[in-house]
Amino acid sequence: MLNYKLLLEKAYEGRKNAYAPYSKFKVGAAVLMENGKIYTGCNIENASYGATNCAERTAIFKAISEGNRKIRAIAIVGADDEYTYPCGICRQVIAEFADKNTEIILGKKSLEYTVKTFAEILPGAFTKEALQK
């Protein structure tokens, strides 16, 4: 069983570093890789909005840059009063390194959370396996 609270705590730590001067919406993420290592990330905004990077992708790209390729779980925290789901681009990046059973932990209000599988938040995901058919 995964330690959801630990992943949420790490996601909140990541959120502290968010750079969100435009939206004022700070997001943090913590991704647990297959080897047991946790990487944190935050959203990093830019005056040119297209250059903005989400917390989930920041955490995943840190893991990938260190040679890890398989996501076991990812925790995401944003607003304190509602669950913050990954955006479409982040869901596609998660699809590249996860499977349909990868757990997505959505947190709010200091460690209140819900858990979804990746298949629940992106049914019919476009994946590299689809390209091989």
UniProtKB/TrEMBL annotation:
Enzyme class: hydrolase
Keyword Hydrolase on entry: yes
Active site: 56
Sites where the protein binds Zn(2+): 54, 87, 90
Pfam families: dCMP_cyt_deam_1
One Gene Ontology term from the biological process aspect of the record: nucleobase-containing small molecule metabolic process
Record keyword Methyltransferase present: no
Catalyses which reaction(s): 2'-deoxycytidine + H2O + H(+) = 2'-deoxyuridine + NH4(+); cytidine + H2O + H(+) = uridine + NH4(+)
Transmembrane segments: none
An MF annotation (GO) of this entry: identical protein binding
Matches recorded under InterPro entries: APOBEC/CMP_deaminase_Zn-bd, CMP_dCMP_dom, Cyt/Deoxycyt_deaminase, Cyt_deam_tetra, Cytidine_deaminase-like
Gene3D superfamilies reported in the protein's UniProt record: Cytidine Deaminase, domain 2
Domain CMP/dCMP-type deaminase: 2-129
The organism's place on the tree of life at top rank: Bacteria
Keywords from the named record: Hydrolase, Metal-binding, Zinc
Gene Ontology terms: cellular component: cytosol
EC assignment: 3.5.4.5
Coiled coil regions, renumbered to chain: none
Binding of substrate, residues: 43-49
Listed cofactors: Zn(2+)
Function recorded in the entry: This enzyme scavenges exogenous and endogenous cytidine and 2'-deoxycytidine for UMP synthesis.
Family (UniProt): Belongs to the cytidine and deoxycytidylate deaminase family.
Official protein name in the record: Cytidine deaminase
